[in-house]
C-alpha cells in the first residue's frame, strides 16, 4: 500500500514539474518558434536532462515534417516522454496559457492600438542570444564530421534561398538521403539510448485516424448543422491542420476565414496579430484573440483548443512510429543527416527573420553580445535574462 501511494505521489510530482516548467517557459519564451526551440533545448536538455540532445533533435525533425506549430509540438512530445498523455497535455497548457490569457485581456480591454510597446525590442534581443547559444551547443554535439557541417550548410542555403513553407521539409529529406548513403553510424548506438514512448502504436493509430476523421468530417458537419460553434471549430481546426512553415503561415488562412467573412474587422485583426508578436509563447495563440473578439471567453477557449488539436493528434500519434524507425540500423545515417539539417535550419531562421528583423544598429549588436556572454560564461538562467531584457528595453528603447 505504501509503495503504491509512493508511486502516485511521485507521478503527481512529475506532472506538476512538467506543468510548472512549461508554464515558466510560456512566460519567458519570446521571439517565435525558433527561439522557443532554443529555450527548450537549454531547459529540457542542458539543465534538466529530461532527454538527450539526440532525442531532442528527433523531436525537432518530426515537428518540421508535421503541419502545425513546431515548438508546441516539441513541447507536447517532451511532455509525453516525461509524463505520458497527461504530461503532454499539461506541457501544452503550461506553455500556451500565459499568451492566451494576455491576448484575451487585451482583446477585452480593446486598448491594443494605444499601447506603447517599444520596450519589447529588449526581449527580441534576448531571443537572438538564446537562439545563438542553442545553435552553438547543438552544433558541438551533432556536427561531428566535415560531412555533417556540409549538410548543415546545404540546409541553411536551401531555407534561405527558397522561401517556401516546404523548404524545411525538403532540406531534411535531402539531408536524410545523403546521410543514408554516406554517413556510417556503426560505431554509435543511439538507438539503445532512445527514450521510451509511453503509448502503444495502436494508440498512435487511433489518434492519427481521429485527426483524419475530424479533418474530413468537420466541414460536412458544419455544412449540415449551421451552428456558430461548429463553424468556429471547423475553421480553426482546418487552419491548424494545414499550416506548414510556422505560425506566421496561419495568418492568411485565418484572415480568409474571419476577415473576409466579416466576423472581425481588418484593423482589429492586424492589431491582434501585432500584439501576438509581442507576447511570449506560440503564435497560434492568435486564435484566442480572434475567438475572444467574436464570442468572448468561450470563443477564446474553443478557438485555442481547436487550432492546437491537430498538432496534438499528429505529434502524439506519430511518435511511437517515428521512434521505432529511428532504431533501425540502416536508418541511423539518415537520422544523422537529418539532425545536421536541423542545425542548418535553425541557423537559417536565426539569420532571417530573427537577426535581420531585430538587429538594427550597433547598440543592438553590443547588447546581444553581452547577453550571449551571460549565457555561455555566467550560465545565466533564461528567465533572468528575460527580466534583464525588459530592463534594457525600458532604459534604451522607450
Automatic annotation (TrEMBL):
<keyword id="KW-0812">Transmembrane</keyword>
<feature type="transmembrane region" description="Helical">
    <location>
        <begin position="204"/>
        <end position="225"/>
    </location>
</feature>
<keyword id="KW-1003">Cell membrane</keyword>
<feature type="transmembrane region" description="Helical">
    <location>
        <begin position="89"/>
        <end position="113"/>
    </location>
</feature>
<feature type="transmembrane region" description="Helical">
    <location>
        <begin position="300"/>
        <end position="322"/>
    </location>
</feature>
<feature type="transmembrane region" description="Helical">
    <location>
        <begin position="143"/>
        <end position="160"/>
    </location>
</feature>
<feature type="transmembrane region" description="Helical">
    <location>
        <begin position="358"/>
        <end position="376"/>
    </location>
</feature>
<feature type="transmembrane region" description="Helical">
    <location>
        <begin position="119"/>
        <end position="136"/>
    </location>
</feature>
<feature type="transmembrane region" description="Helical">
    <location>
        <begin position="270"/>
        <end position="294"/>
    </location>
</feature>
<dbReference type="InterPro" id="IPR003370">
    <property type="entry name" value="Chromate_transpt"/>
</dbReference>
<dbReference type="InterPro" id="IPR014047">
    <property type="entry name" value="Chr_Tranpt_l_chain"/>
</dbReference>
<comment type="similarity">
    <text>Belongs to the chromate ion transporter (CHR) (TC 2.A.51) family.</text>
</comment>
<dbReference type="Pfam" id="PF02417">
    <property type="entry name" value="Chromate_transp"/>
</dbReference>
<protein>
    <submittedName>
        <fullName>Chromate efflux transporter</fullName>
    </submittedName>
</protein>
<feature type="transmembrane region" description="Helical">
    <location>
        <begin position="237"/>
        <end position="258"/>
    </location>
</feature>
<keyword id="KW-0472">Membrane</keyword>
<feature type="transmembrane region" description="Helical">
    <location>
        <begin position="334"/>
        <end position="352"/>
    </location>
</feature>
<keyword id="KW-1133">Transmembrane helix</keyword>
Amino acid at each position: 500500500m505504501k509503495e503504491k501511494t509512493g508511486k502516485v505521489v511521485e507521478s503527481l510530482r512529475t506532472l506538476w514539474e512538467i506543468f510548472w516548467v512549461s508554464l515558466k517557459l510560456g512566460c519567458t519564451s519570446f521571439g517565435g518558434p525558433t527561439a522557443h526551440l532554443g529555450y527548450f533545448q537549454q531547459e529540457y536538455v542542458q539543465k534538466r536532462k529530461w532527454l538527450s540532445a539526440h532525442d531532442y533533435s528527433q523531436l525537432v525533425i518530426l515537428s518540421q515534417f508535421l503541419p502545425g506549430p513546431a515548438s508546441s509540438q516539441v513541447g507536447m512530445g517532451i511532455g509525453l516522454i516525461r509524463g505520458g498523455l497527461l504530461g503532454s497535455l499539461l506541457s501544452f497548457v503550461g506553455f500556451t496559457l500565459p499568451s492566451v490569457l494576455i491576448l484575451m485581456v487585451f482583446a477585452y480591454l480593446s486598448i491594443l492600438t494605444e499601447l506603447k510597446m517599444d520596450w519589447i525590442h529588449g526581449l527580441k534581443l534576448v531571443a537572438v542570444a538564446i537562439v545563438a547559444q542553442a545553435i552553438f551547443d547543438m552544433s558541438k554535439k551533432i556536427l561531428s564530421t566535415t560531412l555533417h557541417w556540409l549538410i548543415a550548410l546545404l540546409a541553411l542555403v536551401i531555407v534561405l534561398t527558397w522561401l517556401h513553407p516546404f523548404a524545411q521539409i525538403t532540406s531534411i529529406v535531402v539531408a536524410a538521403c545523403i546521410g543514408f548513403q554516406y554517413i556510417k553510424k556503426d560505431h554509435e548506438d543511439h538507438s539503445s539510448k532512445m527514450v521510451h514512448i509511453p503509448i502503444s502504436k495502436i494508440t498512435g493509430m487511433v489518434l492519427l485516424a481521429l485527426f483524419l476523421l475530424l479533418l474530413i468530417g468537420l466541414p460536412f458537419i458544419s455544412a449540415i448543422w449551421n451552428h456558430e460553434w461548429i463553424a468556429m471549430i471547423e475553421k480553426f481546426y482546418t487552419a491548424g491542420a494545414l499550416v506548414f512553415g510556422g505560425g506566421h503561415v496561419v495568418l492568411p488562412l485565418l484572415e480568409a476565414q474571419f476577415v473576409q467573412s466579416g466576423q472581425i474587422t481588418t484593423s482589429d485583426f492586424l492589431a491582434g496579430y501585432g500584439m501576438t508578436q509581442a507576447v511570449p509563447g506560440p503564435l497560434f495563440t492568435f486564435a484566442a484573440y480572434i475567438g475572444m473578439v467574436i464570442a468572448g471567453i468561450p470563443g477564446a477557449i474553443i478557438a485555442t483548443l481547436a487550432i492546437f488539436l491537430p498538432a496534438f493528434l499528429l505529434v502524439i500519434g506519430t511518435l511511437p512510429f517515428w521512434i521505432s524507425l529511428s532504431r533501425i540500423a540502416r536508418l541511423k545515417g539518415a537520422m544523422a543527416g537529418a539532425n545536421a539539417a536541423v542545425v542548418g535550419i535553425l541557423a537559417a531562421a536565426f539569420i532571417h527573420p530573427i537577426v535581420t528583423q531585430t538587429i538594427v544598429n550597433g547598440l543592438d549588436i553590443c547588447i546581444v553580445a553581452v547577453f550571449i556572454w551571460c549565457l555561455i560564461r555566467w550560465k545565466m538562467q533564461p528567465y533572468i535574462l528575460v527580466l534583464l531584457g525588459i530592463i534594457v528595453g525600458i532604459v534604451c528603447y522607450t
